[in-house]
Each structure stands twice: as C-alpha cells, then as structure tokens.
Write a structure and sequence with these properties.
By secondary structure, the protein is of the alpha+beta class. The protein is built from ten helices and six strands. Strand 1 and strand 2 form a beta hairpin. Helix 5 crosses helix 6. The protein is globular.
C-alpha cells in the first residue's frame, strides 16, 4: 500500500505541475506572446552582430603597426582631394632641359640642391650618380676636383660682368666685349650651371680651365667613363656652332644614363640629340 500511495502522490504532483505549466503558458498567450517573440528576435540579432564585429586593434597589434597590403591590411583609397597629380612633360624630362643662348631658363625656375663636401651644390636628383662617378675615378687612381657647380643668377651675372670688364680693359667695345664674353661665360639666365645639373671638374694637379685639361689623367678617365654615370662632356670640340660655347674639356652635364649612352654612340651633343628625338629620326628614349 505504501508504494501505491507514493505513485499516486507522484501522479498528483505531476498533474499539479502540469496545471501550473498550463497556467504559465496561458500567461504569455495573445499580445504577450508577440512581445516575447520580438524580444527574442532582437536578442538573437544582437548576438549575430556581436559575432560579426571584429575586436578593436590593440596597441602593438599587426593592424596598429601599419603593415603593407600583403600582410592583409589594406590602406584606404585617397579622397578626391588627395589624388596624385601626373607629372608634367617638363618634370618628366628634367634631365634633358636645354639651356643655351637661344633657350634661356624660365625666370621662376627652382631647384632643390644637395651640398657637396666642398660646400658647392648640385641638383639633388643627380647627386647619387655624381658621387658614384667621382668615387670610381678616384678608385682608378684619378684626383678629380669639382671647382664649380650650381650658380645662382646673381653669381652668373657677376662672372659674366667680370669677363666683360677684362675685355673692355683690352680695348673691346661694350658690344664686342659682351659678344666675346658670351663664348666662354654664359649670359645670365642661359647657363647650365643655374640648372644645378652641370659641374666643372679639373685634375688636382692641373686646375687651369683651358685646353690643357684634356691631357690630364682625370679628363681622360671622364671622357671614357662619364657616360656610364649619366654625364656627358657638354661642350665637345667641333660643336661650338651648335652649343654657342667654346670647347670646354672640363664642363660635364647630367642627362641621365640612358641618354648619355645614346649620345656617346651617336657622337652628338645635346642640341643634336634633342633634334633627333623631336623629328623621330633618332633612337627614342624613355625619360
């Protein structure tokens, strides 16, 4: 009898529990059930969004260190105001800018300069090749000295006037003195030295700016190897009618390695080389 009573008690308890559960289910029926469903849906959406949102980058993490795209971190594209401006044709051809008596420098031209160990300056873009050339010449036993490089317009005017004054003292007329001076000292505004791409290089043991330079060890080396570093003898012998300047076996101009190699092969000065490029009859160059 005792066991039967326990089963009856359990059955009675189950009925009571079922009735309580029914009563609880009845409490969330109707409008309450809709509210419950909406709340459950919002809770599930919150869980999904939390799972999809990456945690913020911690200090020292890869995202915080700005790794390159190959590491999985992609830089945002620039805004329209930050789009790079394509270089102009003049900027692309800076190595081959022609400056002579018929092609003066623009009045507002600017150049970013790099100082040499002796205090002179050159366009910073040609500095690495210039340094490499000087080092190579010294390694082969030469003693090159750069005695002139970049000049301001004021410095060029000072040099030109000094030459004119010396010629006037020799009996030249003003017109004659200026014309003669222009053959060896460029008129201000027409000098390659104002570009920062020209240097006068002499031998330590002969620093005279005259035809004897061509016989020095330094000039022999430069005439043979300067093109390998992007430099050319700018005013070669026999080209004065084209360049407007007398033969100067010490004046070197940077034109870039590719153009220098072509000019050497074609045996032309800069004026001739540019004519060949413009009329399409010469070897084209990417610069």
């Amino acid at each position: 009898m005792e066991k039967i009573d326990r089963r009856d008690a359990a059955a009675s308890a189950g009925k009571r529990t079922g009735r309580r559960a029914c009563r609880r289910r009845r409490r969330i029926s109707g409008p309450g059930r809709v509210l419950f469903s909406v709340s459950a849906g919002l809770f599930v959406m919150a869980l999904v969004l939390t799972a999809l949102t990456p945690p913020p980058a911690q200090a020292g993490s890869e995202a915080g260190r700005g790794l390159p795209d190959s590491a999985g971190v992609t830089a945002p594209p620039p805004s329209r105001g930050e789009e790079p401006v394509p270089p102009s044709e003049e900027e692309e051809n800076w190595r081959l800018v022609l400056v002579n008596a018929w092609n003066p420098l623009p009045e507002d031209g600017t150049v970013t300069l790099k100082e040499l160990s002796n205090g002179l300056q050159v366009d910073e873009r040609c500095y690495p090749d210039l340094q490499a050339m000087m080092d190579a010449c010294r390694a082969d036993g030469g003693s090159p000295v750069i005695c002139s490089a970049y000049r301001s317009r004021e410095k060029q005017a000072e040099l030109f006037q000094g030459k004119v004054d010396r010629l006037l003292a020799q009996g030249y007329t003003r017109e004659g003195a200026e014309a003669e001076a222009g053959k060896s000292v460029a008129v201000p505004g027409t000098s390659e030295h104002q570009l920062g791409l020209a240097v006068d290089i002499v031998d330590l043991y002969n620093q005279n700016l005259d035809h004897t330079q061509e016989d020095t060890a330094v000039q022999k080396w430069l005439m043979e190897h300067s093109w390998e570093y992007g430099f050319v003898l700018r005013y070669p012998n026999g080209k004065s009618e084209l360049t407007g300047i007398i033969y100067e076996p010490w004046h070197y101009r940077y034109v870039g390695r590719e153009a220098a190699a072509e000019m050497r092969t074609l045996e032309v000065c800069l004026e001739e080389y540019l004519d060949l490029l413009h009329d399409g009859s010469g070897t084209s160059t990417n610069f």
